[in-house]
Structure of Phage-related replication protein:
Amino acid sequence: MHSDRYKNFDELVGSEDESAFRIEAEKRHSSICVLAPHGGKIEVGTSDLARAVAGDRLSYYLFEGRKPKGNRDLHVTSANFNEPQAVAVVESSDVALAMHGCEGDDEMIYLGGRHVKLAASIAKALSNRGFSVGTHKNPALQGIDRSNICNRAKLGMGVQFEITRALRVRLTDKKGQLTGPSLKDFVDAINKGLSQ
């Protein structure tokens, strides 16, 4: 695990040029929000996945790295993620779903977060669509810290997705989705899990 260059968003803003990142946030009449706090070039593909899951119904928030290189510097760990628009979107929702990227050459979705029941419902729906789902061995990637941005919505619990690089690349590649369950399958499964 890399250590973060910045402890929180205030430190990041004080040091980085404003062209280094981009924020996109939309609050909708929805009790659920979808986040990609390490989107753009930080954890590649997570912005696309969050946007797809949000569709035109759910509130969403993206923090996207846009530097030519060194985007890892923009990673602020979820427990310290305090960018004001993110906090506003999350705190106005009942539940947050956070899309993250982890390393891995196999196509895996690791689910965590404090909303164990909802995570189980989503896991079942994803498995039924042909995705491999599990719990990450690293406790730091399980999203169980109360201060994790995914657990800061009104219910005090959310769901954290850690998606391997291999799966993120395939799901967000416009040409190569034929070798397994598709981005549509991913979105449909999450919606089914949310509706249970």
